[in-house]
């Protein structure tokens, strides 16, 4: 650990970046983001259990008692640690840590770590694959503004796809939704641009460092997002956007959005990877249909057929997605905000009368009765002499 | 009954049409198809319980002991019979029966009744709403050939929709599937034409008599279907294609297909009526997606969102539908026969109480209330002080 962080220049650089904070944890996390690739579960397990600084000690010091047991418990095993050390060690250079800090300072990027007010807790759902730090150019507060919709899609988009992306993003941005995407050509670019044109509230997750505009043709778009929205990366400045980092970046897009919508995607588009992460995280997943004759929509139709994605045709239908919550996608029913209000007003234990439910939910008694009929058919609620109660969800998390 | 069938000319006409058969049952059924509209549940109940000939005796003779009890048990009630008699009596003219038989003979239409080798048992799933007879020009054996796919859609179709209809129908026909549709402009016509170009195995259900090509612009198409496939009607020759008969005809299309696929449909397209029948019958339901910017696909997207229709993009995916069977579509909204019973028990004009509906439909009051809640949400029924009434279908044919 000394090896990485003992350098006075490193500490000075860190203080410059976080003048009002205790820099020890931040520095250790930066070191982790330099030595470990995004989503490194061994690093995530160590940091989660020991804290970033002690984890760094384990990684680069002796093998402290209990570490192997910890990793065994995490399913990683002691061999995983020795393998991980082999990955990390070649990168353990204090100059790399110092350069990451300096470059961030040069481009005006902020360093976010868990516990910071703008750290997006949504990413904590990634568990041991959660990011160690985030580097942010622009309005970090957008990471915690609500609601947030992740709109993604193919780089090789059609005019139709770009049109729909712009319509949805523009309409959502106009009603206060933060538009999250990946800064790529095609659908991503169309979504960012539309949000910039309306509210500026858009977040671009890059696969490489925030100092590197990628793709090159989006240099001015990414500059504009950094000025009005937020450009965010997990790897430090200077990191190249490798294929692995693209895939790892997708999980952040999926985790940050209250819902992910794939607007256009080929049969094997990378957007399906983002969609898969969203589904795995229990985030509602939408797909925009298109002509069956268009290869650019084949991936969306695949999501509708094979992944129980919700068919989405308008911004309103995107907004309805976050009403659905985890696990409810397959039976994918509507999405009536009144349903949620009514279910919120109900108990799984106590019976409640229709009139009392009407009072609690703010819905009319007729509406309550109609909804109860529906929910009863769906096995969500149950009636007996004492009134109505909610049936506890048997669904997995 | 004598009044209708005693005419020697009528019997002679019937014998000409079915030279090798006992004509008594056939004649009584023809008389029923003349006096009762398609899907008349009172007629269906009487015929189902007593046979066509005795049912005719009840309908036009004295009120035989036990008939009212029978209708009560079927949830129709004695008032239903007296109402029905008022509907039937003005049409009880032996000349109409004779004309139906003669016209059928003149255009070479065969008369099919239950028990005939080519009677499609799939239609028996319609219960008391099953047709009494079918009039067929062309290859009646197609009605029992397997598999059969019902491909339907908007008259106001787009070039995209017609292209997809032709692709799906042509590919399905090439692999031995009978293409069932409604002979209309737009999607129906494109599906029939593609099947004619490949195998000829296509069935057109008309809303009026088989002697009347409707729409007029499809005269030569319908002639060709009669020559190579089959043109089928429930009402007798000479019957005009009224709005009601279009809606009633849709249930036959839905019931005959092993699956129904809506290829293109506006938000309130009549094809959604066919889709609703298919779902109610437990037949797998598919919908072809299209651009969200196309009003002609809005109904298909609605089926995907609200009715759990399966997203279908190729003939192979249509074929996969019949593997799915009743109720197994993704989360497959059940298809509840009770819904149909309840709606059948309701009037579009008179308000009816829950208890009365329970009595008529033979369902428990709680079940009735739950279903009403659902149907109200779906815009099928409406409640006010006087009770519940059914909202008339606003859908075009």
TrEMBL record, chains A, B:
Transmembrane segments: none annotated. It comes from the Bacteria. Residues 111-320 form the Smf/DprA SLOG domain. Residues 330-387 form the DprA winged helix domain. Belongs to the DprA/Smf family. PANTHER family: PROTEIN SMF. This is DNA-processing protein DprA. It comes from Microbacterium luteolum. The lineage of its organism: Bacteria, Bacillati, Actinomycetota, Actinomycetes, Micrococcales. The gene is dprA.
């Amino acid at each position: 650990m000394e090896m990485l962080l003992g350098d006075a220049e490193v500490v000075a650089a860190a203080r410059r970046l976080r003048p009002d904070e205790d820099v020890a944890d931040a520095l250790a996390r930066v070191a982790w983001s330099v030595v470990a690739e995004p989503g490194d579960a061994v690093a995530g397990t160590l940091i989660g259990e020991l804290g970033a600084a002690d984890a760094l000690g384990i990684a680069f010091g002796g093998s402290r008692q209990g570490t192997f047991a910890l990793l065994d418990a995490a399913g990683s095993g002691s061999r995983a640690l020795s393998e991980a050390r082999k990955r990390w060690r070649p990168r353990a250079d204090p100059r790399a840590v110092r350069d990451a800090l300096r470059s961030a300072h040069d481009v005006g990027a902020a360093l976010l770590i868990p516990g910071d007010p703008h750290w997006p807790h949504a990413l904590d759902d990634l568990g041991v694959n959660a990011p160690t730090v985030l580097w942010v150019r622009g309005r970090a507060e957008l990471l915690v503004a609500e609601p947030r919709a992740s709109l993604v899609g193919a780089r090789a988009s059609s005019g139709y796809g770009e049109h729909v992306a712009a319509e949805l993003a523009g309409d959502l941005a106009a009603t206060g939704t933060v538009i999250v995407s990946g800064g790529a050509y095609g659908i991503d670019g169309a979504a960012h641009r539309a949000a910039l044109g309306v509210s500026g509230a858009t977040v671009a997750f890059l696969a490489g460092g925030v100092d590197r505009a990628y793709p090159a043709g989006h240099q001015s778009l990414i500059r504009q997002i950094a000025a009005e929205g937020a450009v965010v990366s997990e790897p430090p400045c200077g990191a190249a956007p490798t294929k692995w980092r693209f895939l790892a970046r997708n999980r952040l897009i999926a985790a940050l959005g209250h819902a992910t919508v794939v607007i256009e995607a080929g049969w094997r588009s990378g957007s399906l990877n983002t969609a898969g992460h969203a589904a795995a995280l229990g985030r509602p997943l939408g797909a925009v249909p298109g002509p069956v004759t268009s290869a650019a929509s084949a991936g969306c139709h695949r999501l509708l057929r094979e992944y129980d994605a919700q068919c989405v045709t308008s911004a309103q239908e995107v907004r309805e997605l976050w009403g659905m919550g985890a696990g409810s996608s397959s039976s994918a029913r509507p999405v009536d905000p009144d349903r949620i209000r009514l279910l919120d007003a109900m108990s799984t234990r106590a019976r409640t009368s229709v009139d009392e439910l009407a009072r609690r939910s703010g819905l009319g008694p007729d509406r309550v009765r109609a909804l109860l009929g529906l929910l009863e058919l769906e096995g969500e609620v149950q009636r007996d002499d004492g009134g109505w109660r909610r049936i506890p969800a048997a669904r997995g998390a």
